[in-house]
Amino acid sequence: MSIDTAPTVSATALDATSGAATRHDILHRLLMTLGPILAALVIAGCILLAVGVDPLAYYGYVLEKGLFSPLGIQQTLTRMAPLLFLAAGLIVAFRAGMWNLGGDGQFLLGAVTAAASAPVFIQIMPSWLALICSFLIAMVVAMIWSLVPALLRAYQGVNEIITTLMMTFLGTSLANVLVKLVFRDPGTTVPQTRTLPVEDRLPRLFETTITSGLLLGLAAIIIVHLVMTRTAFGLKLRIVGANPRAAVHSGLGVPGLTIAVFAISAGLAGLAGAVDIIGVQGNVRADWNPAYGLAVIPAVFLARMNGFAAIGFVFLLSVLSIGGESAARRLGVPNHFTLVLVSIVLIVLALAEYFDHRYSQSRRA
Amino acid sequence: MTGLFSEVFLSALLFGAVTAAIPLLLAGLGEQMSEKAGVLNIGIEGMMLAGAYLGFVGAFYSGSLWLGFLTGAAGGVAVALVMALLCVRIGLNQIVIGIALTLGLEGLTALLHHFQFSRSYPRLPAADATVIPLLSDIPVIGPAFFKQHLIVYLAVALVFGMGYVYRRTQLGLNLQAAGDKPAALDVAGIDVVRTRTIAVLTTGALAGLGGAYLANVGAGLFIPFITNGAGFLGIVLAMLARGRPIWVLFGALLFGICLSLTTAMQVAGINIPTDIIQMLPFLAVMIMLVLFGRRASLPAALGIPYERGAR
To answer: Which of B90, B107, B114 sits opposite A339 (nearest CB)?
Structure first.
């Protein structure tokens, strides 16, 4: 029934780094991350060459627009906010051995409820309270959306991969129905929700365009990481993930914990939607679906469900997606190339980790 | 409204349902084989896209639908080869690689389409049907089930063929053992990696064929993201079917009817947003799961790479 959760066990080993080995370890990690990325860029560059685009010009734009230009890096950091929340939610689920693949549906429903509720709330209460209320309601709606898969898994043992995938398809359509029929802004011809005025959105950091949602996202993922690695509750969840049967025998209330995991994971996905809307977009247009979830899932795996490593991977994803969008506009390559690039990066990173593991094992033996 | 239950409407609805069901059926059958052998194949959406693109390219330049099906299946196999190499042979995480492959092929096929077809959007001529005499004269059902392209009949025949393989052949038993207790299969002297590789490559061929059908017969053209989640539906069908090909067929028909209803209702001028109708098949499955869920019997070693001697 439950699928391989071996990485959950090995992940904890990463946290325990002792003084002397630390520097060598960090250098090694850095090398094992940057090397594969470079290799991936070369492979993807060959594809660019094949379709007649200069790869150096393309990567130049990606780096410039995603990383080195002031506006670009600000956009990249802003993009990180929802991705960090999604990653935090996935870390909880995956460490507990539950495959919440329904992040996109939960994200969209959270986004739509936040978009619908925020403009109403700001008229009846101070704006800080209004934003908090919208966040909460987005979280609760996403949690409710995960309730059916959670109950089915907890009490009937129905595989959550099917149910969460089903619920994500349902959620995507429902979000569209809500935008088009229920929360549609009567003032515009395009189907979209009412727009939250810029001054009522989440404040920006200092003099930049970076959303303060970034700080919320960072806080969320670090708290999740600490809860999962340093608290009794986190340990319980990891036991459920590592061996559900042993968890039952050691007296853990597995059904209750299962529901808690789904609620936390979906709640964080809902918050991701809210932070994207209240912080950045301001409204939800019909048929809007950035499908962040699908790219974040492999990134969380490669980070071995370690919160700090996940921050790094989310940063990388953001640079590639923001930089890729600008480069695509400039060079007339469709934006779809970013997908190819992300895919190659993920595969090469996974391969590098495998060979690194093999190498260190053969040295030990 | 009066035309809603007319014979013409119903037969168009059923015809569309069968057309929509075939790619799902092929994907579901393929995924079922992978899962039986212990490989959770999330890359199937990517395999279908590769099949759809290459199938269309093959059919468009050669003018032969059958050659299109062949190139489509080959495209699916090519992606499956990567999956088999990375996930079966060296045992990388199946979910990471599966999602990465799906993302990559979404991007790659959209990119190639952009440079190749985005100005002209060429179409293939309508596929010619193989009419089965007598049966096709039955009102309503006849045209839907017995006036289809030959490959539709072959796909349905495959359902029974695979049922036979699973129940009556050595290969079927090997596949099941590879998913349930790979160590036992290994001890019996049969190569687990090879058994699983056969399963994954077959999945690729079937998914590629499904994609090619979707592009060449269903739509008559290739557009980016044409599969639109059909691969994921295939995964769901395979899990719901609990290892029995016939249930994949029923499930695919159910989804097909719902998908076809979306188009039919628009044609009939009924003003319900398509989003609501699109929810129908998923809603149906969720209700089925709530009512009859119980413990789905998935292979014990699903998703776990096999490593000889590992505990």
So the answer is: B107
